[in-house]
Amino acid sequence: VCDGANPQGPPSPLPRDARRRLRSKAGPSASPQPGITGLQPGSCRALRSQTRTGFLFQDVCALLVQACQLVHLDQEHLVSKLCQLIHHLLNRFQVMVDEQNLNFLLSYCISALKQCSSWTHVEILQALAALVYNNGPKCQKYLPDLLGQAGLLVQFSDAAQPDVELRRAAVRSMANLCLSVPGQPYLDESYRSVCFQTFLTVLQSSKTSDVDDITFCMLLQNALKGIQSLLNGGKMKLMQTDQIGSLLAVLKKCMFHGLPGLSIEMPTALYPAPLPQYDKRSPVKQEQSEPATFKKKSKGKQKKGELAEEGREELGDAGNESVLGAGMVKLHLGDVQNSPCSDPRTGTSDVVYVPAGKDPLSSHYASWKRISSSESEYSDAEGGIQSKMRSYQANVRQGALACFLSAIKSIEKRVLYGYWSAFVPDAPGIGSPQSVSLMTIALKDPSPKTRACALQVLSAILEGSKQFLSVAEDANDHKRAFIPFSVTIASSIRELHRCLLLALVAESSSQTLTQIVKCLANLVSNAPYSRLKPGLLTRVWNQIKPYISHKDVNVRVSSLTLLGAIVSVQAPLPEVQLLLQQPSSSGLNNSGSATPHRFNSCEQWRKALPSEGEPPDNPAGCVSSEPCWLLRLCVSIIVLPREDSCSDSDANFPAFSSVYEPCPLRLESLQNEQQMLCVTLLLGLNHSENPLVKAAAARALGVYILFSCLRQDVMFVADTANAILNSLHDKSPNVRAKAAWSLGNLTDTLIINMETMGQSFQEEFSDLLLLKMLRSATEASKDRDKVKSNAVRALGNVLHFLQPCHIANPRFREAIEESLQALISTVQSEATMKVRWNACYALGNVFKNPALPLGEAPWTTQAYSALSSVVKSCKNFKVRIKSAMALSIPSKRECYGSTEQFCQIWSALVVALQRSEDTEDFLEFKYSASLRTQICQALLHLLSLAKSTDLPVLRETIAENGDAIGSHVLQYLKAGVEENEAGVHTDLCERERALKGAIKHLRGVEEQQEGKARVRVALYLEGVLANHANATGLIEA
C-alpha cells in the first residue's frame, strides 16, 4: 500500500485482478491520479512531492470513498487492504477529511467491524483511528456505536480481550476520539468517564507472558495519550480522592517503566498524607497557623498539548544514550561544591562522574528518529530488539511524565501537596535506601528527553509552593522524640538542592540542563531560606556562575534567571549580601567582558562564605567600592554589542552552535502543519523578485537548517540546498552574502549528520546535489569578501564530507581539484582576516577526510606551503593560530608527504614560535600566548610522528635553537589550564602526556638507527621534561 513499516512488514499491493476489477468498475471517466491507486512500496516519495505541489486532499478522499463503494464487505481481503490504504494515506500525508466523506468512511469502517471476520479488525481499527484523529467533534452521531454500553471500542478494549493487538488498536482509536479541537464541543461527560476508566484499567494491567514488551509499551502509550487528551482538551478536574490516587499510582508506575536497574511495585492507589493547615503568610513561628486554601493556580508552561497521532511522534534511540549509573547517587553535595569552577561550555564538567565499570559519558546522543506510524519499528540494521525495546520504554516514561504534567494542572495545589512525599525526594534515613522520586529519573534515566520531562514536572510541582514550603524549618536543632512536619519538609528542600546540583554537574544535554536550572530557579523562588540553615544558596550560586558563559543561550538565560531568584529571596539574607559583595574578578574578567571565563578565585570565595550550618559572620573586609559584579554583568549584556567570533564556524561544532543554533522549542513546539507552513513559505519566498525578501528568506533557511528536527530530514536538506544555491547566483551581492552564510550552515549540518547519523545519511544524500554544491561554493569563493568568507567554509565542509566513491568518480575529480586550488589561493591572498581565517579552517577540515590522498597528491605540497607561509608571516595572529592548528591535524606521518616537506613544516613552525611576539599591531599581542600554545602542540605532534629520515633536520634545528625551543615548551608545560583560541582546553597532564608520548616514540626510532648521534632528540626532550618536573617540585615545596 505504501512504503511504511508495520509489525508484519510492508503491506503488499492489491492483487492484480483486484486492481483490474477496480479500474474496470470505475470507468474511463474516473481515471485515478497517478501515484495513488496501485501504490507500490517506494511510491510514497512521489506522492509526497505531488502533495507539496498542490495535490488536493479532496482527490484523496474521493478516491477512498470510491474504493469503499467498489469493495464489498464480503471481500474481506480487499477490505483489509483498503483499510491499510486509508490508514497510510491519512496518517502519512495528514489528509484532512471533510465531514461528508468522513461520515461515509466511518459508516463503512463501523459496518466492517460488525460484519467482517475478526482477523480484519486490527486493520479496520487502524483506519478508524486515522479517520477520527482530530475529527472527534464530527463523530458525535457515531459515539453510541463506538463508546456506548455495548460500543465496539469498549468491547475490543476490555481487559478480557485476548488479542492484545486488537486491544491496542481499539485503545488508540479511543484516544484519538478524545483529542480536542479548539472551538468545537468536546465529548459528553458519560463518554469521558467510559474512556477514562478504560485507559486507567489498561495502565493498571500487568504484562502477561504471551505479550511481547514492545506491543505492551505501545498499549501503555496509547492509554497515556488518551488520559492526557482528557485532562487537556476536556478540562477535566480531578476531585475525588480515589480517582486522583488511582491515576497518580499508575503514572508513578509508568514513570519508571523499563528504567534500567530499577523495578518497583506500586499499589493500586496512592493516598494523601494529612497536611497541617497553614496561613497564606509566612509564619513567624511554626505553631501559629490557621486554616487556609489555595487560590493561586499553577501558571507553569504546559508541554505540548496532546500527544500527536503516533504516526507523527518521534522515538528516541535510548539504546545509544549515556547512562548515569547507580554509583552516581552516592555522590554528596560536598563533591559537587568542590568543583564550582567546572567549565560548562564544553557541555560537561571538568570532572566526569562515571559508574563503576562503565565508559565515560558520551557527549553525543543518538538523534531522534521520525517514523511514519505507530506500527513502525526499526529494522535490524538500525538496532537490535533490545534497542527497540529501550526506545519504546523511554516513550512510555515520557508519556507518563507528560500526562502527570497535565494532571498537576487538573488537581488543586492543596490536594496535590498531599502526595508530595510520593514524588519529591527526602533525605534517606540511616541505613535505609533512597526512595524513588522524580529526581531518580532526572539522575538515572538514559534518555535526556525523559530527564527533561521529569524536571519539567518537578518545576510544575514547585511553582506556587511558597505557602506549602513556608512551614519548613531546620535553623534550630530539634530535640523531640518525633520529627516535626516542618523538619521533614526542610529535609526535603535540602535533598532537592543536593540532587539538582548533582544533576547539574552530571548533565551533558543543553536542553535538559536548561530544565535543571529552571527547576532550581523555581525552588529558590519558593523555599523559605530565612528559616533554613545558611549555605544552600551559596552552593547554588557557586555552581551556577560558570553557566553564565555556557555555549547554549537558553542555559545562559535560565542561569541569569536563577541568579535573579537568589537576589530576590525575601528578607535580604546576610548570605546573599556576601555573595553580591564578592570581587568582580569572580564574575567578570578584568576587561569587563559580558561572558565570564574560568573563575580563578573560587578558593577565596569558599573561604569568604559560610559553610553549611554555620551562620555568616560580619563580612568585614569583603566590601568592595566597585559596583556589584552581577550588576555590571547585566548592564554589559544589555548595552554592549554581541561579540562576533572571527568565523561563522569553529573547529568543534558545540562552539559553533552556541552562537547560531536557535532554540529548538521555537519550531518543534509547533504542530506539524504549522512547521510545514513555515518551511513552505520560506522555500517559496526564496524565489521572490525583491532582493530584500530573497536575502531574508535565504538567511532564515540557514537558521532553519540548524533545527535538529529538520536537519536530519534528507529531503528538507536537499530542498534547502537547492534554494540556497539558487540564491547564491543572484545578481544582488546582499542575497549572495546571505546565501553563502546559509550554505556554510547547511554544510556544517552535513558534518554533524555524518558524525551522528553515520553512513545512512551520506548514502541518502544526492551525489549530483553534492557536486553542484562543490562547484557553486568554488565559484562563490571568487566573489567579494562577504561571500567568500562563508564560501570557503562551505568548501572545507563539503570536501570533508566526500566519500571514497565520490573521490574516485571522474565527475568529481575536476571539481575537487578546482575547490582545493580555490582554498589554497585564498589562504595565500591578501583578503580580509575573516576570509583567510576561514580558509585555514577549511583546509584543516579537508585534512580530516581520510579518503583524500593527503601526502600523495600534488595539491598537498601547495596546501602545506601556503599554511607554512601564513604561520610565519601573517600579520593577524588569529590566522596564524588557525594555520598552526590545521598543520597539526593529519594523524599519520604519511599524510605529511616526503621528508623534505615534513622538515619544511617543522622549520616553519620553529620560526613561527620565535616570531610569536613580533608584531606591529599592539592589539595582536594579546593573542601571542595562544599562538605559542598552538605552535607547541603542533611541534609535539610532529615529533610524535617523525621517522628516522626526519631526524637529521630535527637535530640540526635543536642544536641551533634548542634553548629557545626548550624555554617555550617549558612555558607551555607550566601554563597549566588555559583555553586556546579555538576554544579547546588542554590541561597540564594532557600536555605532559603529549611530551612523554613524543619522547617514547623518538627513543624507539633513534635506538633503531645505526651509529650514535651526539644530539639525540629524545634526550633533549627528556631534559626539558626533567626541568619542568624540578620547577614543579620547587613550586609545590
From TrEMBL:
Residues 1-41, 277-319 are annotated as: Disordered. Residues 396-576 form the DUF4042 domain. Residues 278-288, 303-315 have a biased composition (Basic and acidic residues). PANTHER family: HEAT REPEAT-CONTAINING PROTEIN 6, MALARIA ANTIGEN-RELATED. This is HEAT repeat-containing protein 6. Pfam families: DUF4042, HEAT_2. Gene3D superfamilies: Leucine-rich Repeat Variant (1.25.10.10). It comes from Athene cunicularia.
